[in-house]
Amino acid sequence: MDPLGRAQLLEFLKKEFSAENLSFWEACEELRYGEQSRIAEIVDSIYQQFLAPGATRWVNIDSKTMERTLEGIKTPHRYVMDDAQMHIYMLMKKDSYPRFLKSELYKNLLAEAVIPPETKKRVFPFMRKQRHSSPSP
């Protein structure tokens, strides 16, 4: 959900030659939440860019998922790419994203993050040092 974090993830994926996975996932999100009138157009665009033989940004999905997706796009609808999108999501979740979290790119992103003041409070505010020492009994 963080645009800066997503941009950094995309940069990382470009270096790993797998940026098409995130682009495919985002295109599927556009299909799912985009305008109803553009569904057939978006499905065709996703197919041409990511799934067609010789596609310029081809994504690697298993044959069963590809079969279901190709069957589904014959009658395009908002959720026709769900199986393929989930397959790519799981690839990123199990493989690329954990590597991104260990990368210098991510570490630099964290180092430059703005920390909201409310999170800077002490963990145990009741353990503050007293300003004046109490009189001895």
Give the topology, please.
Blueprint: H1 3-15, H2 19-33, H3 39-51, H4 63-72, H5 82-101, H6 104-111
Helix pairs in contact: 1-2, 2-3, 2-5, 4-5
Walkthrough of the structure:
- The protein has 137 residues and is an all-alpha fold.
- It has one domain: Orthogonal Bundle (Regulator of G-protein Signalling 4, domain 2), CATH 1.10.167.10.
- The protein contains 6 helices and no strands.
- The longest helix is centred in the last third of the chain and has 20 residues.
Task: Supply database-style keywords.
Regulator of G-protein Signalling 4, domain 2; GTPase activator activity; 6 helices; RGS; RGS11 protein; mainly alpha; RGS6/7/9/11; 137 residues
* Whole-angstrom Rg: 23 Å
Continuous helix count: 6
The CATH architecture name reads: Orthogonal Bundle
* Residue windows where pLDDT falls under 50 for at least 5 positions: none
Shape call: globular
What fraction of residues sit in β-strands?
under 5%
Number-wise, the strands total 0
**How far apart are the termini?**
58 Å
Structural class: mainly alpha
What is the name of the CATH class? Mainly Alpha
**Oligomer description:** single chain
The CATH topology name reads: Regulator of G-protein Signalling 4, domain 2
Compute the number of structural domains: 1
Protein name: RGS11 protein
GO molecular function: GTPase activator activity
InterPro entries: RGS (IPR016137), RGS6/7/9/11 (IPR047016), RGS_sf (IPR036305), RGS_subdomain_2 (IPR044926)
Pfam families: RGS (PF00615)
